[in-house]
């Protein structure tokens, strides 16, 4: 009598977890680490990956599951060393707003104010211009040699890490994600997996329900201070057209509150004033902003930069942060950070 071949441990684990999650149970942080280690090592089938992602999406991902998955994604990333006090300004995307590139512009303003920004991003997925698209349109080489990215971060206070270059393990989930065609846990994981593993972060999320949970996740991942934000007009940024909800991780706990443009001494705007276009249109607007152009785009960038400066310990409140951010633009420091980044990333190694 032939003995059945043993089922590989990874497949057995996936079957067991799929059964549990399909029945409405959640995974512990350790279980999520184990499962996503299997997935991101290429040891799960496309059907298993798709089934798990949809089961989690329908039931709702938990803080423990997101944290465990993020730990694996961070562990498998190609790292970049960041200077002390570095911050990331990154959003989940997926808000479908079609605005100008706000967090990318804010990154140059914050860098000009003397705070290192380890910017983690990608090309557009749900918008016309992702961070990588607008940076490329500005003349930055987004796939520059890693040594040049590090140099720009250390010597110029801003470096851009193109997500696919640092997260090779994501190739194992690319097919199921495309075929599902809907948001999954990986939309939440991207901003949690900065290759520089900064201890400070501004994270924008596409829905208010994720503001507090994502702040808790950041705390579990070892972040020292963070603001997780969502504009009540739908933006994954602090917005100037409506109040924004914020959950701050600081001193080992989450504190949640609302902010408005007036808190930073800024005017309310209309959504139409923030509508952008493709990468070339947004790049032209960003250049004009750094050249000193006033208006709604400048105000929303100042608002988001002010929050980053608070998290970085450079400002006590939004009003002070907005003043420091305005100075970074008006004295040319933010524009200089852009120009130096262009020069560094296009240099031959």
From TrEMBL:
<feature type="binding site">
    <location>
        <position position="237"/>
    </location>
    <ligand>
        <name>Mg(2+) 2</name>
    </ligand>
</feature>
<feature type="binding site">
    <location>
        <position position="91"/>
    </location>
    <ligand>
        <name>anthranilate 1</name>
    </ligand>
</feature>
<feature type="binding site">
    <location>
        <begin position="94"/>
        <end position="95"/>
    </location>
    <ligand>
        <name>5-phospho-alpha-D-ribose 1-diphosphate</name>
    </ligand>
</feature>
<dbReference type="InterPro" id="IPR005940">
    <property type="entry name" value="Anthranilate_Pribosyl_Tfrase"/>
</dbReference>
<keyword id="KW-0460">Magnesium</keyword>
<comment type="subunit">
    <text>Homodimer.</text>
</comment>
<keyword id="KW-0822">Tryptophan biosynthesis</keyword>
<comment type="similarity">
    <text>Belongs to the anthranilate phosphoribosyltransferase family.</text>
</comment>
<feature type="binding site">
    <location>
        <position position="91"/>
    </location>
    <ligand>
        <name>5-phospho-alpha-D-ribose 1-diphosphate</name>
    </ligand>
</feature>
<keyword id="KW-0328">Glycosyltransferase</keyword>
<dbReference type="Pfam" id="PF00591">
    <property type="entry name" value="Glycos_transf_3"/>
</dbReference>
<keyword id="KW-0028">Amino-acid biosynthesis</keyword>
<protein>
    <recommendedName>
        <fullName>Anthranilate phosphoribosyltransferase</fullName>
        <ecNumber>2.4.2.18</ecNumber>
    </recommendedName>
</protein>
<keyword id="KW-0808">Transferase</keyword>
<feature type="binding site">
    <location>
        <position position="122"/>
    </location>
    <ligand>
        <name>anthranilate 1</name>
    </ligand>
</feature>
<feature type="binding site">
    <location>
        <position position="177"/>
    </location>
    <ligand>
        <name>anthranilate 2</name>
    </ligand>
</feature>
<feature type="domain" description="Glycosyl transferase family 3">
    <location>
        <begin position="86"/>
        <end position="334"/>
    </location>
</feature>
<feature type="binding site">
    <location>
        <begin position="101"/>
        <end position="104"/>
    </location>
    <ligand>
        <name>5-phospho-alpha-D-ribose 1-diphosphate</name>
    </ligand>
</feature>
<dbReference type="Pfam" id="PF02885">
    <property type="entry name" value="Glycos_trans_3N"/>
</dbReference>
<feature type="domain" description="Glycosyl transferase family 3 N-terminal">
    <location>
        <begin position="15"/>
        <end position="77"/>
    </location>
</feature>
<keyword id="KW-0057">Aromatic amino acid biosynthesis</keyword>
<comment type="function">
    <text>Catalyzes the transfer of the phosphoribosyl group of 5-phosphorylribose-1-pyrophosphate (PRPP) to anthranilate to yield N-(5'-phosphoribosyl)-anthranilate (PRA).</text>
</comment>
<dbReference type="InterPro" id="IPR017459">
    <property type="entry name" value="Glycosyl_Trfase_fam3_N_dom"/>
</dbReference>
<feature type="binding site">
    <location>
        <position position="237"/>
    </location>
    <ligand>
        <name>Mg(2+) 1</name>
    </ligand>
</feature>
<dbReference type="GO" id="GO:0004048">
    <property type="term" value="F:anthranilate phosphoribosyltransferase activity"/>
</dbReference>
<comment type="pathway">
    <text>Amino-acid biosynthesis; L-tryptophan biosynthesis; L-tryptophan from chorismate: step 2/5.</text>
</comment>
<dbReference type="InterPro" id="IPR036320">
    <property type="entry name" value="Glycosyl_Trfase_fam3_N_dom_sf"/>
</dbReference>
<keyword id="KW-0479">Metal-binding</keyword>
<feature type="binding site">
    <location>
        <position position="99"/>
    </location>
    <ligand>
        <name>5-phospho-alpha-D-ribose 1-diphosphate</name>
    </ligand>
</feature>
<feature type="binding site">
    <location>
        <position position="103"/>
    </location>
    <ligand>
        <name>Mg(2+) 1</name>
    </ligand>
</feature>
<feature type="binding site">
    <location>
        <position position="236"/>
    </location>
    <ligand>
        <name>Mg(2+) 2</name>
    </ligand>
</feature>
<feature type="binding site">
    <location>
        <begin position="119"/>
        <end position="127"/>
    </location>
    <ligand>
        <name>5-phospho-alpha-D-ribose 1-diphosphate</name>
    </ligand>
</feature>
<dbReference type="InterPro" id="IPR035902">
    <property type="entry name" value="Nuc_phospho_transferase"/>
</dbReference>
<dbReference type="InterPro" id="IPR000312">
    <property type="entry name" value="Glycosyl_Trfase_fam3"/>
</dbReference>
<feature type="binding site">
    <location>
        <position position="131"/>
    </location>
    <ligand>
        <name>5-phospho-alpha-D-ribose 1-diphosphate</name>
    </ligand>
</feature>
